[in-house]
Design goal:
mainly alpha, three-stranded antiparallel β-sheet, 3 strands, 3% strand, binds acetyl coenzyme *A
Length: 374
Amino acid sequence: MSDDIKKGLLGIVVDETEVSKVMPEINSLTYRGYAAQDLCEYCRFEEVAYLILNKDLPNTIQLRKFEKEEKNNRDLSKDLYSIIKKMPKKSHPMDVARTAVSIMGLEDKETTDSSEEANMRKAIRILAKTPTALAAFYRIRKGKNIIKPKKNLNIAENFFYMCFGKVPQKEIVKAFDVSLILYAEHSFNVSTFTARTITSSLSDIHGAITGAIASLKGPLHGGANEEVMHMMNKIKSPNNALKWINNALDKKEVVMGFGHRVYKSGDSRVPTMKHYMFKVAKLLNKDKYPKMYEILENEMLSKKNIHPNVDFPCGPTYYMMGIDIDFYTPIFVMSRITGWSAHIMEQHASNKLIRPLSKYKGEEVREVMLLNQR
Ligand code: ACO
């Protein structure tokens, strides 16, 4: 392949952004200038969602107004509930999320208005409704009744409530909230770039987020958090971890939850998420996951010098919380809606149609022969 082709857009800077800054050289990530790990320590996900969408942290009054709007928009239309009820029970919840957001676009009164004000209102509606749609499917496929959202709960608490009918202890909610903060935004990754590409043709926010969800589903992107847990379940016990990982490396397999296109010496989100994963394990007396974590991490580092990415601690954290594995990437969606929406608004504000070139390597010009001559 010739040198002028940058397959996978490797190393190509395609635009500017004010939303987040990934700094692999110092292992850091900021949202609108604030370090993600500080946001995890001092803020709730709602504050971070406001920050990402509105460019600054909210004061008390701004947060109250934002949360009120989010809470008032959580419930779904009767039609959407009934469509979700009719979806095949074996559907992957990512496909449910993708279809649900697409239907929200059919129902939204402002779908064709892509002004910044309308996009902000739509972003909050998508942020508010998507967890409800997912939780409804969580219960429907188990043959359980749907639990409607509750306005006196925050986003993290309400998701647990809608899935399980109760809110777990505050340390569990905090770990989940931290995962939402860490998943909220990460510059020009595949799904965000997909959302911006769709937006660049002046398409609407529901379409862009629908496309972004499809892109996030893949195991090389968001889907890795589910694969990590399948892998840990295959390994079963820390005693098997070393043998398993060496066998995988001998067979040149890709080990899920490791490696990153941008971070080559460690994912800035990992130390925070690892800390909360270990906290949850201690609280719930499930030390086999931290043990497995350490063995796999050490072996990947010493044999391949490849660090874990944020999906590595997220997978087992959600598993210990009792969440079905195929809901891990949809949880990522619930959070990343904020980052995608901010990028969609940024793209609209300074748009240029995204249209790269390709180098043709197919047949040279040929003459068409009539059907009876071929
Ligand atoms: N396991 C084993 N080897 C790996 C891994 C891994 N997880 N990641 C990278 N490598 C190896 C590759 O085999 C390659 O080796 P080679 O040079 O001998 O061929 C080398 O490291 C470079 O890897 P690339 O795939 O070329 O790096 P790239 O930047 O294109 O890929 C990616 C990054 C796709 C994330 C890759 O590391 C991967 O597949 N990881 C597993 C999936 C995963 O965890 N994805 C989540 C990403 S984070 C997120 O989306 C939130």
